[in-house]
From TrEMBL:
GO cellular component terms attached to this protein's record: plasma membrane
Lineage of source species: Bacteria, Bacillati, Bacillota, Clostridia, Lachnospirales
CDD domains per UniProt: HisKA (cd00082)
Protein name: Stage 0 sporulation protein A homolog
Source organism of the structure: Waltera acetigignens
Domain (Histidine kinase) ranges: 153-378
GO MF term list: histidine phosphotransfer kinase activity; phosphorelay sensor kinase activity
PANTHER family: HISKA, TWO-COMPONENT HISTIDINE PROTEIN KINASE
EC annotation from Swiss-Prot or TrEMBL: 2.7.13.3
Pfam families to which the protein is assigned, alphabetical: HATPase_c, HisKA
Residue ranges annotated for the Response regulatory domain, each copy included: 399-446
Keywords for this protein: Kinase, Phosphoprotein, Transferase, Two-component regulatory system
Amino acid sequence: MKLSNEIISSIARTYQYISRIDIQADYFEEINNRDTEHLKFTKSGKLSESNEKVCRQYVAEEYQEAFFKFVDLKTLPERMKNEETLVLEYRMKDGDWHRLRFVEKKRDENGVLTHVLCLIRSISDTKKWEHELMYQVEEARKAAALKARFLSNMSHDIRTPMNGIIGTLNLANRYPDDLEVQRKCREQIMTSSKYLVSIVNDILDMNKLESGGVVEQEIPFNLAELLNRVNLGKQKQAAEKNVEYIVDWEQSDIRHMDLAGNPIYVERLLTNISDNAVKFTGPGGSVRVWCAEKYADEERVVYEFGCADTGIGMSETFLEHAFEPFTQENETSRSRYEGTGLGLAIAKKIVDRLDGDIAIESKKGVGTTVTMTLPFKIGEPVEKEKNVNYEEIPVEGLRALLAEDNELNMEIAKFMLEDYGIHVECAADGEEAVQKFKNLSWDITM
């Protein structure tokens, strides 16, 4: 008797509820219940009736059918014919997870099961850990797939302009005396080089945003000047494609022009969105951008920025993935429209960092509208820079110490400085530059 009590006490520490069941009599009797708040069972009685009440009242609907089948005493002896225990995990309506276990207690002379123990324990913490582990595994799988897609896309996107540069250089070498060919080759090389730089900038920006490298800043800036810079560049880009670029706001509409925030990333955000609009709009189409003040008090102002185009648009299915990195609706877009597929992903990250909102409406073959809402602190007027003509500042005859660890970059920088008549002394790194500075007799008043 003492040994039985010790066994029951040991099991009771593991399970919140224990009862014994007479299968043939359809009868149960509670032995121990440490959680009467959640396991509101009667002490004893007809098991089938108790199961019906418990299941309908407490077990989550999607698990009720499995629960009924598991506790069916008519089939239990057959199900446990060669088993000493059976287990079922199910969720309650209150969100708690339970594990119910039947354990063999007694069989008759023919080996037919007649009595079992019913053991119930809460496994919510275990389930939470399992779900977290599954989530981490899924995130790791997504990260691996994203990395593979990144490498595939980048190898394509980088190789294309590099091949263009190499091919153009070969063409220029074949016609060294043809000035028109040389001019066209230089333009093509410059275009491909700028595209390469934009790819690198996108990757660096995405990495910085993913790693939390963007810190909250309150830099004073003038919103009208920022918008003019963005739109001036996009108007030129649109004109080259015969796309109408409509700026649908007046400077008088911006009541609070002097703001405080992160102008670098605000400009990057608006540039990315308008760049996408121009890129995916064909000749004869239009892009309309606007800015509107939505709310303002003594300290804060909220602006809505919008960009609507009549471009190729996106399907409803793709819209769900529009903000995912390296996504374009189909692979042919990667060849027809230059880009890393990071534009909208970067925009979403920036908006999130700036505590704003971004929304997209699009229809295939009709166009896309992107709306962004951003909050700013109202700042003080920004003092405008004085117009200085740096070309009029005399630099010929000055001396410069150039530290650069890349041989090609050093050669280019040295050439540019010497082109202005500057005497250049080169150093391969900072340490060499410091030593040369110490050893040289410099007239630092120059």
